[in-house]
Amino acid sequence: MLNIGWFSTGRDEAALQLLQAVQDKIRSSDINGKISFVFSNREPGEAQESDLFFELVRSYNIPLVCLSHKKFKTDGEEKGWRIKYDREVNKRIEPFAPDLCVLAGYMLIVSEELCQKYDMINLHPAPPCGPTGSWQEVIWMLIQNKADTAGAMMHLVTPELDRGQVVSYCLFSIKGAPFAEHWCNDDKEMLFRLIRQHELAREFPLIILTLQSLSRGEVSIKYRKVIDAQGNLISGYNISDKIDEEVKKNLR
């Protein structure tokens, strides 16, 4: 059984919906694992959105660990506060001994010390070796480069932003229908909206199917490397076909 640590700021409805979706899959045994704790860099009372998220966590009887980063982010310590903060985070989550930590809408950059101690995965809305940056920056770069393919990936968290070892990924063409006419018309705004729609529809399935695959041993993380069920090193587990099936109904 995969012992999962869940990191989320809990800042919006998407954070709440994702936790619900994963917990539903755990309860139905589609994911052979459990969320042993939820960690947030906010504390109760800081924001209404995160308070609603905390209520959901408690309803599942999952231990909730909170530590506001605002207590550490002080003037004059712009570089050092993150290390001090993550050391305190580690003290609080270490007893849970997670096999894997999932960053799910966690709005802090993790320090090198913490991401080297735990296998931590994060979603990035671009194909492997694709653009880095925010989802908006990624899409505009794809359009600027007239890319054939978009996608998303789950990767190991490292000090180098969005460049950790790829764990899993999905790809989809942005050249055929319904994109082709907008490339012809050079309608960048419509291309932006369409690419985002198709990428966003794949985010939840990618996270869920990645956890499912890890919990079933279809793919594993060992010594910061990704291996398949036969023990071979791979450069990421391609689950595009599975995800395409999951999202068809959402894009009709």
List its salient traits.
8-stranded mixed beta sheet; two-stranded antiparallel sheet; 252 residues; 2 domains; Rossmann fold
Write a short abstract of this structure:
With 252 residues, the protein is an alpha/beta fold.
Describe the protein in words:
Helices cover 40% and strands 21% of the residues. It has 252 residues and is an alpha/beta fold. It folds into two domains: 1-118, Formyl transferase, N-terminal domain (Rossmann fold); 124-252, no CATH class. The strands form two sheets. The chain has an eight-stranded mixed β-sheet with strand order 3-2-1-4-5-6-7-10. Strand 8 (219-222) and strand 9 (225-228) form a beta hairpin. Helix 1 (13-27) packs parallel to helix 2 (48-59). The model has no long low-confidence stretch (mean pLDDT 92).
Task: List strands and helices in order, with pairings.
Layout: E1 2-7, H1 13-27, E2 33-40, H2 48-59, E3 64-66, H3 81-93, E4 100-103, H4 112-117, E5 120-124, H5 135-144, E6 149-156, E7 166-173, H6 180-184, H7 188-216, E8 219-222, E9 225-228, E10 237-238, H8 240-251
Parallel strand pairs: 1-2, 1-4, 2-3, 4-5, 7-10
Antiparallel strand pairs: 5-6, 6-7, 8-9
Helix pairs in contact: 1-2, 5-7, 7-8
